Amino acid sequence: MLYNKEIYSFARQCENFNRRNTVVFRGLKFSYNAANGQIKKLYNKIGNILKNGLTLEGINKKFGETETLKHIWLKAKAGKFLTLLGPSGCGKTTLLRIIAGLEIPDIGKVILGNQDITMMPAEKREINIVFQNYALFPHLNIFENIAFGLKARKFPKAIIKKRVEKKLEVLALQGFENRRPHQLSGGQKQRVALARALVNEPEVLLLDEPMSALDARLRAKVQVELRRLQQKLQKTFILVTHDQDEALVVSDHIAVMKEGRIIQTGAASEVYDNPKTEFVAEFLGAANLIKGEASGEGIKTEIGFLKLKKMPAWINGTVAIRPEWIKIRETMPSINGIKGKVAEIIYRGSEFDIRLQPCNLRVKTSAYRNFKQGDEIFIELAPEELAILDE
Amino acid sequence: MSKIIVWYGEIISEKSLLKRGVAFIAPGILWLMLFLIIPSVLLAIASFAGRGEYGELVWEFGFENYKRLAGFSLFGWTGDYLIILWRSLITAFFITLLSVILSYPLAFFIASRSPKKRYIWLTILIIPFWTNMVIRTYAWFIILAPDLPFAKLAAFLKLIPNGSPLYPGAFAVYLGMISIFLPFVALPLYSSVEKLNWELVEAARDLYASKTRIFMQAILPQTLPGLSIGIILTFVPAIGTFVTPDMLGGAKYMLVGNLIANQFGASRDWAFGAAISMGLSLLTLGSLYFYTVKAKKK
Amino acid sequence: MRKIRSIITFISISTIGFLYLPLAAMAFFSFNRSKYGFTWEGFTLNWYIKLFENQAIIEAALNTIVLAVVSTIISTIIGSALAIGMQKFPWSFKTEKSLNMMLYLPVAIPDIILAAAIVIIFGILRGVSSIFDPGLLNMIIGHITFQIAFVALVVKSRLASLNSEIEEAARDLFASRFYILRRITLPLLTPGIAAGAMLAFTLSLDDFVISFFMAGPKSTTLPIYIFGAARRGITPQIHAISTIILLITVVSVIAAGRLTVKKNRKRWRITKNFVHL
User: The domain containing residue C126 runs over which residues?
Assistant: First the structure.
């Protein structure tokens, strides 16, 4: 699913450049602009698509009586950043460990490229992992830590030196070669762990909540750096996190997990814009959930009739709208307008977080206007902003 | 086919993992089986055995040894052995208590030094801890000798006859045992005191708690882990101690350790020795159980 | 507050004095010219020089060292393997608990009981072979028995403090089992094994009871020698040999430095675990 959509969007992009040159791949038509040197890029792009990335086929895993993973089907596209997002205990780390070869599934396959690696030992997989607590070797210095994987595979010394030095440079770790892990800060340790994995040039890099040990300010910075690094290297990254902001910042794709299942996958923005369940809507950002009954061009709800962009598949169900998508109006809007009283205002610096009664909606608005408690305001829940959940 | 699992990143069948694990523990387990567990069981069995002509074990089973330990003999009942067991228990209890009382100031004293000095004081405390027990007991012979001030003072006060030493006797045994076991309490206690959260003490003081209450409610609970370890490290060896009472107590202050040693030495009655050992084990494990149950409740 | 502080200082200094006074007196009188009694008759090193002429003392010293070295080497190997085996393999809860009980037994019972039990097993084994007659071999076996438990507990606590992810990380970084053992597990475990060996060595030197129960006529150790000699009467020569042993202890404690502090911590950490068992 994901996969075809990606190609479509790419093809559409190419068409905008030049309609004359086209290429057909797996029944899909691609256009490119030969004059602008787009052809090489196009081939690279198709090459990446050709490389199958990593596929999980029907993974099940039980620990004792608890079913940690239930029937997981997932595809991590080559060269893309995939995030497994879910609350703690949802099985995301176990899934990552299965990919790394540190667990084996009870049922199901792990396929890398075209090869089934389910029973391949961890030390044979072209996959490396960055552990949550980094698991650096405390008795080795930073150089030896980073060189460990190459040394274990008996690379010639000169190549090891060259490669490690390159990674030290990329991750701004020069000058730390002779230090021990305990002499580094959290952020530096994390970069060493990254370097230690990346120096092996793995096909897939796994990251198990690598930012959880960092403070909030550093985390925000590292997220952006990680994103840049991935885009520069064009490697497949799979990140596990419970932090929705982190998922949105770094990922191309997000797979939301809950209780051992994947409940929604898609491009980061798509999952954010069109959550399919209440869980996804609330876990990935904040959301107002409005229950209603389908009728006419929209739904009947407690707060009035709401027009929708398309008809839902259900009779009784829920729509969601994010607080920042609700618009505040001077007068009552003609479509999906609601009058409410300000019950609570939380000032967040760049924005206000307002709770309205009696409709019980949360609204985010930039702080250009002062609201007071008890003010009556009009809001608009535009039909295109209302996400229709699956039930 | 045994189940395949991943163990520390290695894909391996449970069966071969088990084999490998057994290979690691087998020598140690065999050794402990042969020289710890089986002997302990044999000791228990031997306690029901009889005594041969030369003191060796005779495999005829009965409760004779325990009857004897309880004081029943051909000549009627005497509480001698029970008194020795009881005395050992009481001695171990008081030695532990006195060591604890002396250790608290010491632990606070060391903890309140600067880190560098703290290290020196700790070393000073550790040296006796690692000095052989026989030597430390022996040293008391000298300080308690008749020509030296302590014995002279005691003689002057008519506590002992003129020209005799302050040993053998309960006094010397207590001195010797406290000096031996005090570091066993003081060192673990210190490690707890070092980690003490003084904010709680400040808070208690802030709330106008009396000094006793500050100690009981803000300090004691925090030092409890170190204290428990110290108590066990002291009580267990103290109740079975043999060197110090033998050297400094002689016949005047016999403890159960000496009694056991006698059965395996001069008296040559292994079966009876085994019975006393069982009595001592029961006493020790019973006290430990009593202590841990109480400690857990707290 | 100041009053309490000075009381604490006073009690502490007195306590330390109480610990050291006998030892100091012993060292002092070992330099006394007088053979009997405790009147100072002038300084002499005579008693120390005479030690080297005393065949019994030299033999006892050799026995003590042989006993400590041999038992430490064997117990360190067996104990470390036991610790790795217990910690690194998925034993059932029940197996693990009974193995732990086995290790804590020597901590939880007075050493005299262990000594008595070993005397009995040797008494029986003597019927099989005469090598189980009282002597150095029996003493070594006795020492190894309690040393194994302590070494295993120290190494085990070190292993438990190691992050298990480290080995997984090594595995993930293409290392084979033996490469991990050589490059990761053993180097990380070395401080634990060294601490265990040191503890075993000192415990052996410290032991009196087990040696005493198992000693034969030719296997006297220094503590047994001093114990026996003291029964016959105290002499400046015993002061001298005791002072030398004290001096060796002082030097090794200071030399071991911080390691000793840590090691003692380990000894009570073991007991702490026992409390929670």
Answer: 44-276
Domain A54-273 classified CATH 3.40.50.720?
Answer: no
User: Is the four-CA dihedral C95, C100, C103, C104 of positive or negative sign?
Assistant: negative
Q: What is residue A74's three-state secondary structure?
A: strand
Residue C210 has what pLDDT?
A: 92
The Cβ of residue C151 has, within 10 Å, a number of other Cβ atoms equal to 32
Domain count, chain C: 1
The first and second tokens of residue A141, run together, are 């210095």
- B53 domain-assigned: no
Give residue B26's domain range.
1-40
Q: Which amino acid is at B219?
A: I
CA angle, corner C48, sides to C43 and C49, nearest 5?
A: 105
Q: What is the mean pLDDT of residues C2-22?
A: 91
Parse chain A into domains and list their residue ranges.
5-50, 54-273, 286-388
Q: Tell me what percent of chain A is helix, strand and coil, each rounded to the nearest 5.
A: 35, 30, 35
Prediction ipTM score: 0.87
- CATH code for the domain in which residue C49 is found: 1.10.3720.10
Contacts of A339 (CB under 8 A, 6+ apart): A332, A376, A377, A378
Q: Are residues B82 and B27 in the same domain?
A: no
Does A286-388 match A54-273 at the fold level?
no
- Give the model confidence (pLDDT) of A28-85 as tens digits: 455 555 555 555 566 555 555 546 789 999 999 999 889 999 999 999 988 899 999 9
Q: Is residue B54 part of a domain?
A: no
Residue C24 lies in a domain: no
| pLDDT at res. B195 | 83
Residue A150 and residue A199 in contact, taking contact as beta carbons nearer than 8 Å: yes
- Write out the residues of chain A at the interface with chain B, using a CB-CB cutoff of 8 A: 101-104, 119, 121-123
- Give me the pLDDT at residue B140, please: 92
State the 10-residue block means of pLDDT for chain B, 298 residues long.
84 92 95 94 91 77 85 78 91 95 93 84 88 92 83 80 80 93 91 84 81 82 86 90 88 87 86 92 89 73
Mention the CATH class of domain A286-388. Answer: mainly beta
Tell me: cis bond preceding B183? Omega within 30 of 0 counts: no
**A interface with C, Cβ–Cβ below 8 Å:** 100-102, 121-124, 127-129, 131, 133, 135-139, 148-149, 152-153, 196-197, 200
Rg (CA), chain B: 25
- All residues at 6 or more sequence positions from A280 whose CB lies less than 8 Å from its CB, including other chains: A256, A263, A264, A271
Mutate to test the interface with C, among B19, B35, B116 (most CBs of C within 10 A): B35
